[in-house]
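Quick one, tokens below. Sequence please?
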């Protein structure tokens, strides 16, 4: 199952994107996104894909892919 969310808002810096894609636990200030990634880790034990693409002042795109048999 693939889920993609696209936002044409303010975007994220390269550092923020890298931190989220590597799931750096020090970036807990965005509770909603942090909780989402934490739950993916707990539910799918690394058997999922999570990726952010973003440009400051342009967009943010978040893609989550989980195995269909684990839903």
């Amino acid at each position: 199952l693939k889920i993609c969310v696209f936002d044409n808002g303010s975007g994220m810096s390269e550092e923020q994107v890298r931190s989220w894609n590597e799931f750096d636990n020090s970036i807990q200030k965005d509770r909603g996104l942090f909780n989402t990634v934490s739950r993916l880790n707990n539910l799918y034990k690394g058997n999922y894909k999570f990726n952010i693409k973003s440009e400051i002042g342009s967009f943010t795109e978040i893609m989550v892919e989980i195995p269909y048999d684990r839903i």
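The chain has two helices and three strands. The chain has a mean pLDDT of 85.
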